UniProtKB/TrEMBL annotation:
<protein>
    <submittedName>
        <fullName>Cupin domain-containing protein</fullName>
    </submittedName>
</protein>
<feature type="signal peptide">
    <location>
        <begin position="1"/>
        <end position="24"/>
    </location>
</feature>
<keyword id="KW-0732">Signal</keyword>
<dbReference type="InterPro" id="IPR011051">
    <property type="entry name" value="RmlC_Cupin_sf"/>
</dbReference>
<dbReference type="InterPro" id="IPR014710">
    <property type="entry name" value="RmlC-like_jellyroll"/>
</dbReference>
Amino acid sequence: MSAARLLVGAAALAAVALAGPVRAEDPSIRLTPPEIAALAKGGAGAGTSGVAGIKTTILYGDPTKSGPYTIEIRVPPHTRIAAHSHKDSRTAVVVSGVWFFGYGAKNLDPLVKELPPGSFYTEPAGVDHFAQTHDQPASVYIFGFGPTSTDYVEAADAPKP
């Protein structure tokens, strides 16, 4: 292969690498933890609880549009997320920290299950659920098929913009 072809190929790869997160249009994706850490972090986004302090990263797709998506949420210590549901069924994996997750119409301590890193859980469509962190933050990857929503059981519990 000529040096010119190698240079063109390397330039094309660099352009793809610098383009940012891969969206659903390009299903080929490989991200290391440092690459994920370098992605843009936002506040509460589509498919999240909207609670202040939670940082959201879209890893794949777009939760506001039809199609598969993956988001990461980073939740600070001592955070409580009130009972809510989503219109799409979702699955999730706890990546780091300890996540306390429960099902029901009210965030009650006796209903949560402690989920350490590597734990898996589901958020079935329309099923009320809630979560919290205690003394340490948690990072969770959530997988769904959008568009998604966040619908609080009690409207008063919904975070104010």
